[in-house]
Amino acid sequence: MEYKHTKHSLLDDQINGLIEAGYYPNRSELMMDALRYLFSKRQDLRLASAIELYQEGKVTLSRATEMAGMICEEFKDVLVEKGLKIRVESLSDEEFNEGLKLIKDIREKR
Fold first, then answer.
1. Most CB atoms closer than 10 Å: which of 26, 29, 57, 95?
2. CA angle 7, 43, 74 (to 5 degrees)
3. Cβ distance 69 to 43 under 8 Å?
4. Cα–Cα distance, 70 to 84 (Å, whole number)
């Protein structure tokens, strides 16, 4: 069997080496750690991911802001600079009623 020495096989060997050495229990845990590190170092990727998911409606403005590592006004400014729309979010009736109940419960405990 011929062994091809490519960048991909080298990367696979490095991944397998870390797992076999006990640094990670499996490939999935290693990949999650690698991605956490990547996002911690690359603000541009955090921002791109946040914008994409926000535009697709998969995350709220608040969550996208958190993902991007920004404050809300900064994130809104970026959206405006890119010519993207800011969605106005509102609570569902159920969420509103839950919040109202929580406030009432807190007031009653005083």
1. 29
2. 160
3. yes
4. 17
